[in-house]
């Protein structure tokens, strides 16, 4: 062999040896890390001392914690057995996690800067909606919240009322068409109807109802609402379901709705998998993100140009959330301004936060009303006492909602509803609707009983002592008394059971699991602020610095939709419905889970 070849062989052998040593070192490091995580660290985890359900080495309690079909029983059972604060097991026995129904604990965790959303939650959201306020923490979050907050004041939300009312009516016009040309949308009815469908057939016959997947229709309407209220852009998803951005958004969330699979979890830890080995879900998500980004970029550029032109002319016409954001952004220190890409991420955040959550809440509300006909009738009567005729109900002054400079959105397809007197402006009547006590109570009770966000999670970024207001009996027999503290280690997860707190019998009484809007006319002592620190006396919108910015927006949109829908339509159940939790709590037809989110109801015309 020549000396050159000899040299090459030596280099190759050394290279192989170095590689082998590197691989051994990496594997050894992995094994040490794994053993440390599974065997050593748990021995020193203070959460180990808390009471809680047992688990075998590979068992987890995620379903009992997060699956709404099991969580209410599991939470109730655990509270009875272990008290208000306990631990459960996450990804195996080694993974101790805390859960608490003690407001002192919940409030401490949600208000203290020591606790943040886990990076896994933020990475998942960032993949779908970019780096908007949802995935921010610390000073970046404070800055964005200051910027966005003013777009959600009472006044700003009130100015969006015409949009809510008009989109609600446009949806009713579509339902009216379904009823007048009776046909059953094949896609909304399971191909093999469960007995419940047969049972309602006679009732449907009686009031000439048709089965309508109300979740689907309200989802389209609320997407249009957030388009107009958020960006002054009419997606027209109500008119055309195949609208490009709506379609992209739906397809992307249909993938996410399938729930966390092993691949999804692996992708979170090793995002490179998406590039090296994209599956159909990844391809659909990537394509959807491309469409949304393209449309969003155009929207942000056009909006910026309009706002700049208005600012130079000292005009102030644009009231949508994006315009308010751009205006606030302009007045900021240039070094702190949001870039166009960041503005786009905020748009995606509003699309996610502002459409599905409200539409699901509205769909759940119609579900509860269909199951409780006497409440449905009472609410309709309350609304009819404000609104003159059941069938023609709006203002004579058309609401002028400019959509794009060249596209004036025609607000109504059918004659507008007429409010009690033509001398009333829509805003005057709106004040009456807004102040309707039973409408308010029905909405709050829906949001309490079926909060679209089932729970939230925080991770401790440093060791901490958490104060408790209910005693905790530790495993070694020690009692942490009221006013005492529980130790928690950096990196531990705390689960906040939003739905569980809304269901607590200690707060809401024995009928906590019943749909009883009247409870809101005299709230139990424990459900009143400050004893109950959540927004609007429930945990549905969270609490603390990350609490929901869209609280008022949601209540007002729900009021406008119900006030428009109920005087025109009657609802009856069409199938047995259950809940599943995939990012949000969604309805599905029992035994028809594979059909995805659906809430079929028999919808008939109301005639007095
Ligand atoms: C039924 C409807 C809604 C529910 C149940 C809901 C629930 C929540 C909850 C629980 C949080 C806090 C999450 C946490 O602490 O981990 C939150 C945050 C947020 N919500 Fe909503 N939301 C709803 C509607 C809306 C709407 C309509 C908008 C905007 C148009 C919106 C915008 C936001 C934003 C921007 C945040 C993040 C705030 C921050 O991190 O500072 N939400 N929401």
From TrEMBL:
Q: Which residues cross the membrane?
A: 18-44
Q: Which PROSITE patterns match?
A: CYTOCHROME_P450
Q: Which GO terms describe its molecular function?
A: heme binding; iron ion binding; monooxygenase activity; oxidoreductase activity, acting on paired donors, with incorporation or reduction of molecular oxygen
Q: Binding positions for heme?
A: 548
Domain of life, source organism = Eukaryota
Q: Which pathway is recorded for this entry?
A: Secondary metabolite biosynthesis; terpenoid biosynthesis
- CDD domains for this protein: CYP_FUM15-like
Cofactor requirement: heme
Q: Where is this protein primarily located?
A: membrane
Q: What is this protein called?
A: Cytochrome P450
State its location(s): Membrane
Q: Which InterPro entries match?
A: Cyt_P450, Cyt_P450_CS, Cyt_P450_E_grp-I, Cyt_P450_sf, Cytochrome_P450_monoxygenase
GO CC, any one term: membrane
Tell me which UniProt keywords the record has, alphabetically: Heme, Iron, Membrane, Metal-binding, Monooxygenase, Oxidoreductase, Transmembrane, Transmembrane helix
Q: Which organism is it from?
A: Tricholomella constricta
Answer whether the UniProt record assigns the keyword Endoplasmic reticulum to this protein.
Answer: no
Question: Sorted alphabetically, which SUPFAM superfamilies does this protein's record hold?
Answer: Cytochrome P450 (SSF48264)
Q: Which family does it belong to?
A: Belongs to the cytochrome P450 family.
């Amino acid at each position: 062999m020549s000396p050159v070849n000899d040299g090459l062989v030596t280099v190759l052998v050394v290279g192989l040896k170095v590689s082998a040593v590197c691989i051994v070192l990496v594997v050894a490091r992995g094994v040490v890390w794994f053993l440390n995580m599974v065997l050593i660290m748990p021995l020193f985890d203070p959460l180990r001392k808390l009471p809680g359900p047992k688990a075998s080495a590979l068992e987890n309690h995620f379903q009992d914690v997060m699956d709404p079909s099991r969580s209410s029983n599991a939470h109730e059972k655990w509270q009875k057995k272990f008290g208000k604060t306990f631990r459960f097991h996450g990804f195996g026995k080694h993974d101790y996690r805390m859960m608490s129904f003690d407001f002192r604990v919940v409030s401490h965790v949600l208000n203290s800067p020591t606790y943040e959303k886990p990076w896994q939650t933020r990475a998942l959201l960032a993949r779908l909606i970019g780096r908007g306020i949802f995935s921010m923490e610390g000073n970046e979050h404070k800055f964005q919240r200051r910027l966005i907050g003013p777009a959600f004041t009472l006044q700003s939300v009130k100015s969006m009322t015409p949009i809510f009312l008009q989109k609600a009516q446009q949806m009713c016009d579509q339902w009216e068409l379904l009823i007048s040309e009776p046909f059953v949308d094949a896609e909304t009815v399971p191909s093999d109807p469960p007995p419940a469908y047969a049972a309602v057939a006679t009732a449907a016959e009686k009031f000439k109802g048709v089965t309508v997947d109300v979740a689907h229709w309200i989802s389209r309407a609320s997407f249009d609402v957030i388009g107009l209220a958020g960006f002054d852009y009419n997606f027209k998803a109500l008119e055309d379901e195949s609208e490009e951005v709506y379609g992209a958004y739906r397809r992307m969330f249909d993938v996410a709705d399938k729930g966390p699979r092993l691949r999804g979890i692996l992708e979170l830890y090793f995002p490179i998998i998406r590039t090296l080995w994209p599956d159909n879900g990844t391809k659909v998500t990537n394509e959807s993100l491309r469409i949304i980004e393209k449309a969003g970029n155009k929207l942000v550029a056009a909006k910026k140009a309009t706002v700049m032109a208005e600012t130079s002319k000292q005009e102030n016409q644009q009231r949508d959330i994006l315009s308010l954001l751009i205006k606030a952004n302009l007045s900021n220190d240039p070094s702190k301004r949001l870039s166009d890409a960041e503005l786009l991420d905020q748009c995606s955040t509003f699309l996610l936060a502002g459409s599905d959550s409200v539409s699901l809440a509205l769909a759940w509300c119609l579900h509860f009303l269909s199951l409780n006909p006497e409440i449905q009738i009472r609410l309709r009567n309350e609304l009819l006492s404000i609104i003159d005729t059941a069938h023609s109900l709006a203002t004579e002054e058309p609401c002028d909602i400019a959509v794009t400079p060249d596209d004036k959105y025609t607000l109504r397809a059918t004659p507008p509803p007429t409010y009690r007197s033509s001398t009333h402006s829509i805003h005057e009547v709106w004040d009456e609707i807004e102040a309707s006590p039973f409408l308010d109570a029905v909405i709050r009770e829906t949001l309490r009983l079926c909060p679209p966000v089932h729970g939230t999670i925080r991770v401790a970024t440093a060791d901490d002592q958490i104060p408790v207001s209910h005693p905790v009996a530790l495993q070694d027999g020690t009692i942490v008394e009221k006013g005492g503290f529980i130790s928690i280690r950096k990196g531990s997860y705390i689960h906040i059971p939003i739905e569980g707190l809304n269901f607590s019998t200690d707060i809401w009484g024995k009928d906590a699991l019943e749909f009883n809007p009247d409870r809101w006319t005299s709230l139990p002592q424990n459900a009143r602020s400050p004893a109950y620190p959540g927004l609007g006396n429930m945990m549905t919108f969270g609490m603390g610095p990350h609490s929901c910015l869209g609280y008022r927006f949601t209540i007002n949109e729900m009021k406008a939709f119900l006030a428009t829908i109920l005087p025109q339509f009657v609802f009856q159940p069409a199938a047995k419905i259950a809940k599943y939790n995939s990012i949000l709590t969604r309805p599905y037809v029992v035994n028809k889970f594979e059909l995805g989110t659906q809430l079929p109801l028999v919808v008939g015309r109301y005639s007095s």
